[in-house]
Amino acid sequence: MTIFKSFNFFAFLSKKFEQISKKSSITIWILLLIFLIPVAFIVPEFFRLRNLNNVLIQMAPLGMVSIGQTFVILGGGIDMSVGSQISLVSIVASTLMTDSLISMIGVTALCLIMGAFFGYINGLILKVFPIPPLIATLCTGYFFQGVAYALHQTSGGYIPKIYKDVFTASWGLISVPFFLFLLLFIFAYVLLSKKKLGRYVYALGGNAEVLDNIGVKSPEIKIKTYVISGLTSALVGLYLVAKLRSGSSHYGDDYTLLSITAVIVGGTSMAGGIGTLSGTFAGAILVSMLTNVLNNVAFRYNLQSAYYKDIITGLILIIAMIFYRKRTKK
Hints:
With 330 residues, the protein is mainly α. It has a single domain (24-328), classed as ABC transporter involved in vitamin B12 uptake, BtuC (Orthogonal Bundle). The protein contains 14 helices and two strands; from the N terminus they run H-H-H-H-H-H-H-E-E-H-H-H-H-H-H-H. Strands 1-2 form a two-stranded antiparallel ribbon. Strand 1 (170-171) and strand 2 (174-175) form a beta hairpin. Helix 3 crosses helix 13, helix 4 (82-96) packs across helix 11 and helix 12 packs across helix 13. The longest helix is centred in the middle third of the chain and has 28 residues, at 101-128.
């Protein structure tokens, strides 16, 4: 009798856990809180104000590009070119910008337009040709990266000091990059949850035929998701070029995989149609925290953290995809 009671108890827990897992944003926030418990013992300096500020600053560019990636993946696509876009924007900005205020404003506007155009190219290719998004954006990513190498093979260029000061200003836990992320997050949240475009994006990833039946052209919605991704990538490129005061064809190398990891860990289905920006927010924080904790551990125990970071990031992505696998089935 006791055995049956135990079985029923564990079945009950399993059912409850499955119900929680369906609310992916809640799940990832719970996991994030659980992750903080061992961190408090292993790396107590993690909770110092200065370090927490560093985590939020490190999270800001990843969070911004992950917002764009969320729109694309929710719509049933994927953008493998975001890293190359970031690198190319950084090189263009550092090549053209001067100390003139007009130059700084003009180049910033030009880079944002470039990002939107890059996204439009991705969406247009998918509209015209029956190519899987993974393959199409890999190809455009190679193209953007090739242009970046052609313009500048190494780090270089010039960015005015005042441009850096504006983009990297910080006051305690409040910083310009984190503030930019919050503004972008709020705007994207309203767009996704309160506007028609958001409902269309969910429908695009869930069942594109629904859009066609009500007279909405699904390819046009797909293009818009990639334009949003291009804009967020351009914004990240501008932030990185301001922070480092130079451009490089390698600045965006890590952001493609990390943005996908943040989105998937946050509970967005790779099949599209299921997910939240809140989950992406938590996923971006988790990935940034992981990097920061590993760096602190490496410093304390004289280890090479880069290798462990890549291994653990890959494991987290695999586990997240297994965890949410049932939700991808139509």
